[in-house]
Design brief:
Blueprint: H1 7-15, E1 20-21, H2 25-29, E2 37-38, H3 72-81, E3 98-99, E4 105-109, H4 114-119, H5 126-137, E5 146-150, H6 164-181, E6 185-189, H7 191-198, H8 204-207, E7 212-214, E8 217-222, H9 225-230, H10 235-250
Parallel strand pairs: 4-5, 4-6, 6-8
Antiparallel strand pairs: 1-2, 3-5, 7-8
The structure holds uracil (URA).
Uracil (URA) binds near residues 109, 110, 111, 122 and 125.
Length: about 260
């Protein structure tokens, strides 16, 4: 597939280490064929396809816990002291989230890894380096216009997969973070983040390429950076997901939405 890439898109591909071929010099000289050809990359869909948010009746019944009224500091303290599931027994730190509390972008991962648990911050490992490259590709970094959080605030022992009831138990913290932050776009990375936020068991491949909503905020699904490190060929798809998220962000707000 060939794409016409503007300079920003080419920079995004370079930051994410997605290889693309510039059309040969000879062809570039010809006025009509100035087309760099992307390898691996899929284009973002031409039209932004919004998916209706699951009605509240389909979303798990939420008991009033007080979390929904907390401000940032109270919420962070409640997370730090949380003993609602067994993950608290093995954690060294909770990982609340990091970044700009006025951010347009909310990046949601799955759960802290070992180094994150040690230091109390998300995405400090190799997958975090790729995430940083992805953010740089968007002209962002993790301290400006971006907030990064996980659906699980504690590390599952040995990095095992999160249990559904652990995700359900922790999700109200993320929901409140979204309410406080009011981001303009959410990028949900990886199966567990996506399934917890969208209440869906569909694979990522089926949920990509559409704009979902979480608590009314547009949400774009993409692969987890740890998955991308193991499956380099899918970096192009992640790039298309970033393009879609950027496209949503750049759309003028629709009044009443
Ligand atoms: N570290 C995080 O904070 N989240 C992930 O999903 C993976 C590693």
């Amino acid at each position: 597939m060939s794409l016409i890439l503007d300079q920003r898109q080419q920079a995004m591909l370079r930051e994410m280490k997605v290889r693309y071929l510039q059309a040969p010099q000879r062809a570039l000289a010809a006025p009509t064929v100035q087309k760099p050809v992307a390898q691996l990359a899929e284009p973002a869909p031409a039209t932004v396809n919004f998916v209706a948010e699951a009605p509240q009746s389909q979303v798990q019944a939420r008991a009033a816990t007080g979390i929904e009224l907390m401000e940032w500091d109270a919420l962070a303290k409640t997370v730090a002291e949380c003993r609602a599931c067994a993950l608290c027994n093995g954690r060294r730190n909770t990982v609340f989230g990091v970044g700009d509390r006025q951010a347009d972008w909310l990046i949601v991962g799955e759960a802290p890894g070992e180094i994150d648990d040690l230091q109390g911050q998300p995405f400090l490992g190799q997958d975090g380096l790729l995430l940083d490259n992805m953010l740089r590709a968007l002209g962002l970094n993790r301290r400006q216009k971006v907030y990064i959080a996980n659906v699980l605030k504690c590390r599952p022992p040995g990095n095992r997969n999160p249990e559904p009831q652990e995700l359900a138990q922790c999700e109200p913290f993320l929901r409140r973070q979204v309410e406080l932050l009011q981001p303009r776009i959410i990028l949900a990375m990886g199966r567990f983040a996506v399934q917890a936020m969208l209440q869906s068991t569909e694979p990522i491949g089926k949920l990509r390429g559409q704009v979902h909503r979480y608590n009314g905020v547009p949400l774009v699904v993409t692969y987890h950076p740890a998955y991308l490190l193991r499956n380099l060929a899918d970096k192009g798809k992640a790039w298309a997901d970033l393009c879609l998220a950027l496209e949503v962000l750049e759309q003028p707000p629709v009044s009443g939405s």
